[in-house]
Amino acid sequence: QGTRDHTPAQAALRDRLLSAVVSCFKRHGGAAIDTPVMELRETLVGKYGEGAKLIYELQDQGGELLALRYDLTVPFARYLAMNKITNMKRYHVAKVYRRDNPATTRGRYREFYQCDFDIAGQFDPMIPDAECLKIVHEILSDLQLGDFVIKVNDRRILNGVFAVCGVPDSKFIPACSTVDKLDKVPWEEVRSEMVGEKGLSPEAADRIGDYVQLHGGLELIERLLQDAQLSQNKLAKEGLGDMKLLFEYLTLFGITGKISFDLSLARGLDYYTGVIFEAVLLQQESERLEEPVSVGSVAGGGRYDGLVGMFDPKGRKVPCVGVSIGIERIFSILEQRLEASGEKLRTTETQVLVATPQKHLLAARLKLISELWDAGIKAEMLYKKDPKLLKQLHYCEDTGIPLAAIVGEQELADGVVKLRDVATREEVRM
Amino acid sequence: QGTRDHTPAQAALRDRLLSAVVSCFKRHGGAAIDTPVMELRETLVGKYGEGAKLIYELQDQGGELLALRYDLTVPFARYLAMNKITNMKRYHVAKVYRRDNPATTRGRYREFYQCDFDIAGQFDPMIPDAECLKIVHEILSDLQLGDFVIKVNDRRILNGVFAVCGVPDSKFIPACSTVDKLDKVPWEEVRSEMVGEKGLSPEAADRIGDYVQLHGGLELIERLLQDAQLSQNKLAKEGLGDMKLLFEYLTLFGITGKISFDLSLARGLDYYTGVIFEAVLLQQESERLEEPVSVGSVAGGGRYDGLVGMFDPKGRKVPCVGVSIGIERIFSILEQRLEASGEKLRTTETQVLVATPQKHLLAARLKLISELWDAGIKAEMLYKKDPKLLKQLHYCEDTGIPLAAIVGEQELADGVVKLRDVATREEVRM
Asked: Is B56 annotated as a binding residue?
C-alpha cells in the first residue's frame, strides 16, 4: 500500500527528471554521498515532531533496533557528526519512507524519492542560504513546470512574532505547526485550533493573525524592522536583518520576482532554526480565476544549525542549510503531461536490430551482433532461430530502434551488411 | 552493523562502476524498472532455501506484513506476474538486504547493491542464456579486473547426476546446496556433510564425487552425452544437449576461452531450473603459485522457468534467465586498487571558481556566478564576504577545479573577467 513499481516508461521519465535535478546539484559543486536505508531507531527519535509516528520500524530480530530513514537530512547530520566533518556541500538522491496515508494521485507515497542539496559549515550569513533558493529557482525553471513562487520566512521571525503576541516559549512549536496549515485552510480555522487545541488566548491568536497573514518583499521587511513590537524582539530583529540581506543577494541573482516573504510559512519539522522556504506551483494562466492559487509544494528547506550537534558527543554544532526537491509531485505532473501529449518515451536506447531475411542464419546474426556489442554499439536481435523479416522490422517500429542491420545469404556471400533506416526504408550495403 | 555510508570519493567510484554496468545493460537493449524496497512477506517466503532466515522483516505496525527485498529476481518475477507480462528484457540496479554475518573487508554487507539483467519470455533454447554470459564477459572485461573464468552448469544435469547416483528426489535440493560448497572446501568435507548431515549413502556420495569434480569444455559435454548412466537420464540428456548448444553460441560470440563447464557449480537458490553460472576472478599472475586460485564470485545467475508461475493465480509460467553482477566485491577491488595507486578521484565536477582579489566585491562575485550557472557552467565560490585570493586558489587545488574566474576592481572598471588556469597560472582577460 502506498508504494508502486515503476514500469520502463516511468523509470525512463524518472531518470530524465532525476538527471535534470542532479545536473543542477553538480552545477553548484555538490558532492554525492550515500547512507544506508536503515538507521538506528535512536537516531531518528525526536527529530520530526508530529511526523515521528510515521516512521517505519524494522522488527527486532536480534541485534540493533533499526528503522527506515524518514528523510535525508537527519542521516546527513548523523554522517557529519560521526565523521567530524565541519564543512561540506553534498547532494543525495534516494528513497525515504513514511507510514503516511497515501494519496497516490497527488504523488504522495509511502516510499518516495528525495533529492537533497545541503551546505554545511560556518560561513558568512545568508550566502549559502541564497544559493539554496537559486537552486530551487533553477530546477523549477529548467523543468518548465509553469509559474511558481518560493515562499520564504525565518523561524526566528516567527518565534519573535509569537513572543511579542504573548505566547509562552513552551508553545512555540505547537503554534508553529498550526500556523503551517495556513496554506491549506483559512485563518479562522487556524485561529480556532490555536485557541482550542493549542490553548492560546484569543487575544494572542488575533495578534498572531495580524502578522502571519502578511506577505511581500523588501518593503515588508523594512516595515517590520520598524514595527514597534517586533523591532524590540532580539530574535525577530536578527531574522529580519538576515532576511533583508537574503533579499539583497537574491536581487543580485535576479530571482526576487519569484520570491515572497511570507509570514505564514512555518514548515512542520522541529529542527529548523533560521531561514525556511517552500516552493509552490501556481495554477496555469488558462485555469486561473482571480488570484493565483497554489497547487502544492514542490520544494522546501531551511536552516538547521542545531541538528548536527544532537549527534555529536560534545554537542559541537555545524550550521547547515539545505533544500529538498519534491520529486514525486513533479513526477506526477510530468507523467500527466506526457500522457496528455500522447508522446511515447523510448524505454531502451538500442541503435540497431540485427536481422536476417532467410532461415538458417542464426550463426550469422550471433557473429554480427557480437561484433557490434564489442564495438560499443547498442544492438538487439530476436531470440528466435528463424524469425520472419517482417516481425523483426515490426519490433524496430514498436520499440523505436532506428536501424536494422540485415545479413542474408547474398550479403554473407558478398561479405557485406545491409543497413536499413527503419523509418525511411532506405538501405545501404556496407 | 554491516552497512556503511559512502563518502563522496566512494560515491564517485561507485557511480563510475555502476555507469559501466548500466551502459552494458543498455547496450543489450535492457529497459529499466524499479520496485519498492519492501515486498509483502508472503512474496519472499519459500524462494530462497537456506537464505530465508536472513530476510529483514518490518515491524507489524498495523496493515500489511512487509519485509525488505532479499534480491531483485523475486520482485521481478512478482512484477511480471502482477502485470501479466510474458516478454521483457529488463535491468534493475538497486540495494537488497540480508541479515548475514557481514565480512566487510571482502565486500560482504547487509545492505548491498545488485545489478541485474534478466530476459523473460518463451524463446528458442539457449539464445538468451548465451547473451547473459556474453554480458558477464563484457562487464568483467570492461572493468579490467584481471583474469576470470565463468563456470557454467545446468540444474537438470545436476539432478540427473543425483538420480543416477541413487539420491532420492526429496534430497536433490539439500544435496545441491552441499555440492555448492565445493569451491570453498575440499571434496572430503563435502562428502562427509552429504553422508552425515544430509543422510546420503557413502556409495551415492562417492559416485556423486566422480561427477562433480569434472570440469572442461565441449569435449566433456560430448563425453557425458556418451556416459552410460547419464545418457539414460532424461533430464541430464536435455541439460547436456542444451549445454552443447550453449557452447556453440558462445563460440560464435568468441568467449569460450573464459567459460568452464563445471559440474560442481550448484548455486544456493531454490528457484533455478536450467542453466546456472557464476563468474570468479582468478589471482593475478604475480601472486599465482601453481594453479589459478579463485578469489571469489563476482557475478552469477541462471534460468528460473518456474518462479513467475508461483505468483500467477493460474500458475502460468514465464521462462526467465538472468544475471546478477556482484558489484560490492568488484567495488572493494577497485577501491583497494585506487588506494594503492594513490590516484585521487575528484568528487565534484566544478569547472570554475569565481574569485575576487580585493575586499567588498561579494556583489560582483554573486552576479558573475549567477550568470555562469544560468549558462549551465558548473561554478562555485567561497561563502565568505571577503576571502583571501590565496585561499580561493588553494580551494581550487584541493578540489581539482581547473579554472578561476577572477573579478577585481580593475576588471570591474574594464568590464572584463580574468580567467586563470589553476595548474599553469596562465591568465587571460575576457
From this structure: no
